[in-house]
Amino acid sequence: MTNTLNSSDYVLELEHLVKDFDGKRAVDDISFKLKRGDILGLLGPNGAGKTTTLRMLLNIIAPDSGIIKILGETFSEKTKNRIGFLPEERGLYRKMKVMDTLSFFGELKGMKSAEIRTRGLELLKKFDLERYKDRKVEELSKGMAQKLQFITTIIHSPELLILDEPFSGLDPVNIELVKDIILEMKRHGITIIFSTHLMDYAEKIVDTMVMINNGKVVLDGTLSQVKSEFGSNFLKIKYEGDATFITSYDYIKNIQDYGNEMEFELTNLEYKDTLLKDLINRLSIHAFQVTEPSLNSIFIRKVREGNPAQGEL
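and the corresponding structure tokens:
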């Protein structure tokens, strides 16, 4: 028996969104849906139309045409209190104390003072900021301020969480902390839109993805569906040595080189043994494995397909 989804299963539905700025089309007929409880990766290069799309679904700007349904209805003040939004451009009042900041943002979302304090202290402790609760924002490091901004976004326990570059300004330890909290919120049934340039993290946590380039959706589906579109002729190696000679092999279709790790797409996977023989006498090979394409290589290829001047992968 086939399971079918009805409208109530979707937290977000965008249909044929179009937005122009000064005669230039920033968003060009974008449509996609987000199921309740999923994490959607909204991906794309700078200027692709991601932030414009997020601003339209939050009613910050209006689309020129198209339909937006969010949490089952058109956007309203009531809807707004069920959403948490972390913008890429952060905004905290630097002269305000940390707890006063949480009170301000909590009250904007309709929370009571006692609830704000309880929830605020709980989150400050989780983010290792509790001892700074009476400090002014300007006294915090950049990373601490970024964590505080994240707390203001989730303090009201939103049903839909929209994160635009949530890892910006964080060190690796705090990136892991924020990532773990995002996954914890998913386990509690919160639906999340996650826009980032860090493909390694996106690949590990998203359920579905939408990739936008030049204002258009160029990929849309689950991670496994998207990867299957790119075939299975992929290999990954870890190596030491000068590997520049590899570009001369005509059975290699694409190469993504990271210096001591390389991902290949072969014209046919049957060439894998040939490749190993060709490499083993010229490089020190630490790992050689058949793999699926990484989200990073898919991202780069789709961007370059839409922007040929950037060259071939």
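(Above: one complete record from the training split.) The two ends are 43 Å apart (CA to CA).
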